[in-house]
Amino acid sequence: MSFESDVFLQYRPVRERMIRHGFIRSGRDMVFRGEIMFGKFQAEFRWSGQNEPRITIREDGEEYSLIHVESADGDYVRRIRDACIVWMTELRDACFARKQFCGEQADRISEALLQKFGDMPDDPWQSKYPGIGVFRHPGSNKWYAIIMNTDGACVRRPGTPCDVLTFRAGTDRAAELLRMPGFVPGYHMNHKSWVSVVLDDSIPDPVILAELAAARALLAAGKQRNDAPGVWLVPANPKFFDVVDAFAKKRTILWKQSTDIRVDDTVYLYVGAPYSAILYRCRVMESDIPYSYEDGNLRMDHVMKIRRTHCYLPTQFTFAELKKHGVNAVRGPRRMPGSLLKELEAAACPEGESKSRKGKRTC
Question: Which one of 81, 114, 350, 358 has the largest count of C-beta atoms within 10 Å of its C-beta?
Answer without folding.
Answer: 114
